[in-house]
Amino acid sequence: MKVIIIGAGIGGLSAGIALKRIGHEVRIYEQVREIRPVGAAISVWSNGIKCLNYLGLEKQVAKIGGWLDAMAYVDGLSGETMTGFSLRPLIEQVGQRPYPVSRAELQLMLMREFGLEDISLGTKLVDLEDDGERVTARFEDGTSDTGALLIGADGAHSIVRRHILGAAPERRYAGYVNWNGLVAIDEALAPKGQWTTFVGEGKRVSLMPIAGNRFYFFFDVPLPSGLPNERAHYKSLLGGYFAGWAPPVHRLIERLDPDTTNRVEIHDIDPFMTWAKGRVALLGDSAHNTTPDIGQGGCMAMEDAVVLAITLQTNTLGIEDALVRYQNRRNERARELVLRARKRCDVTHAKDIAATQAWYDELRREDGSGIIRGIASNIESGPLG
């Protein structure tokens, strides 16, 4: 069966690999001419890693993953550790170590596994037609392709989603700006095997180890949308936003390279339950655009890919029926995680100052068990346990 996938991100590539593994002919179309992942790195929690393991990528992802043994929250202003704990109980409970990874390295790994020869870059979808027996995708350059079904993994601004919903849903600004990038590991910034997050004033600064002796870092600052984005001012802006914060935060600001640092205004989309129409279905951010506050965006896309392949392989009443079954297996879980991330976002970034202060107070009493319980609940409700 011929499958067309629109989008060569984490979700589209994972779906392509999964569908090839069960014998389908798959072609991926991506509008950009050069793959430049949005964000320097991604924390792939154990449910996402299990999906990659299922796709036969266990050794490859372990090679590019950072070794994460512990987690800590630090008072951003005083530098005092509020709570710190081992992640071993989490790993033993869920049965798989998480791996923070470079987005570029993860995407390249997936592209190579799928097959570079079956990816068309610089090919933007402009229209699609489903005649009930096949789907035809038409591209901006005048070319087209036809398959038995089409999967829209074309991200937050999905064109395929408009076909399914009949309109483009509004993206909601989450209220904060994120700067992220990579720096060399240095224990003057944070312990090398620990995910360290500095918090205060509704802001966050986080450091997470990835392969290659590097930290993935990010800064979150509640700000209005639409402010100027000038790389030359990143260091001075961050220095001002984090004035009075502990020395490691200012060392990090000094060491970041503005030319390789990303700045992203964070958005999400209200959850919706219709992901399939005829022989067309959504996957990944096109189906459930979320804030990154619980680290499940990429993991959900990988889960979508695995469930889609299993559903197509095990249901034989037709493609339309299988796609609705895929939708119904995924949409409630995705809805729950999008709303859970939104709730965490509001607490973390001081939408309600009293709620954020209560969270800071709670962190000082936390022994790690409560945080691990929350992370485990995100992981264990996934399709692979």
From TrEMBL:
<dbReference type="InterPro" id="IPR002938">
    <property type="entry name" value="FAD-bd"/>
</dbReference>
<feature type="domain" description="FAD-binding">
    <location>
        <begin position="2"/>
        <end position="339"/>
    </location>
</feature>
<dbReference type="GO" id="GO:0004846">
    <property type="term" value="F:urate oxidase activity"/>
</dbReference>
<dbReference type="GO" id="GO:0006144">
    <property type="term" value="P:purine nucleobase metabolic process"/>
</dbReference>
<protein>
    <recommendedName>
        <fullName>FAD-dependent urate hydroxylase</fullName>
        <ecNumber>1.14.13.113</ecNumber>
    </recommendedName>
</protein>
<keyword id="KW-0560">Oxidoreductase</keyword>
<keyword id="KW-0274">FAD</keyword>
<dbReference type="GO" id="GO:0071949">
    <property type="term" value="F:FAD binding"/>
</dbReference>
<dbReference type="InterPro" id="IPR050493">
    <property type="entry name" value="FAD-dep_Monooxygenase_BioMet"/>
</dbReference>
<comment type="pathway">
    <text>Purine metabolism; urate degradation.</text>
</comment>
<dbReference type="Pfam" id="PF01494">
    <property type="entry name" value="FAD_binding_3"/>
</dbReference>
<keyword id="KW-0520">NAD</keyword>
<dbReference type="InterPro" id="IPR047712">
    <property type="entry name" value="HpxO"/>
</dbReference>
<dbReference type="GO" id="GO:0102099">
    <property type="term" value="F:FAD-dependent urate hydroxylase activity"/>
</dbReference>
<comment type="similarity">
    <text>Belongs to the FAD-dependent urate hydroxylase family.</text>
</comment>
<dbReference type="InterPro" id="IPR036188">
    <property type="entry name" value="FAD/NAD-bd_sf"/>
</dbReference>
<keyword id="KW-0659">Purine metabolism</keyword>
<dbReference type="GO" id="GO:0019628">
    <property type="term" value="P:urate catabolic process"/>
</dbReference>
<keyword id="KW-0503">Monooxygenase</keyword>
<keyword id="KW-0285">Flavoprotein</keyword>
